[in-house]
Design a protein that fits this description.
The protein has about 170 residues and is mostly beta strands. About 0% of the residues lie in helices and about 55% in strands. The chain is built from no helices and 14 strands. The strands form 4 sheets. Strands 3-2-5-6 form a 4-stranded antiparallel sheet, with no helix packed on it. A hairpin with a 4-residue loop joins strand 5 and strand 6.
Length: about 170
Amino acid sequence: VARPPDRGTPATTTRDQGAPSPRRRDQGAPVQPAQARGLLSVEAPGPAEVQVDGKRLGSVPLAKASVAAGNRRLTVRSAQLNYLIQRPIQIEAGGHLELKLAPKRGQLRVLVRPWAVVTLDGKKLGTTPLPPISVYEGPHSLELENATLKVQKKMRITIRAGKEEVVKARLE
């Protein structure tokens, strides 16, 4: 008859006797495989920069860029064409998401008293009154200047797709 070990003496077992091996600290935790990835291709009017979750991936056309799988935030920005497209995307592990994007436009109407030279994103558009201007959606810088009155106003505006943004200003 085997006697149980004395409380002061540790029990000794070996693996070949079928006893469980000692537990390591990481045992029981799931093994994390390398992060799952998918591919992303983007076409849009260029030149434009493509970012996912704020990380630059390259320029359009972007072909088969490796991106971590999951819900992501896509940004396509063209400084030259003055547009910004932002949208959520879903990257499937092992999948390939192909996007053909076309920035949408809105209207800008500038109403100034008495008058102003209008500059949008560094490009002079003319002197008010101006007809409504078709502008890509997104944020823009607008400058109104009346040299006679020595008045200049600068502001940031956001154009929404399919909407009209009306800017009213008095330069007196």
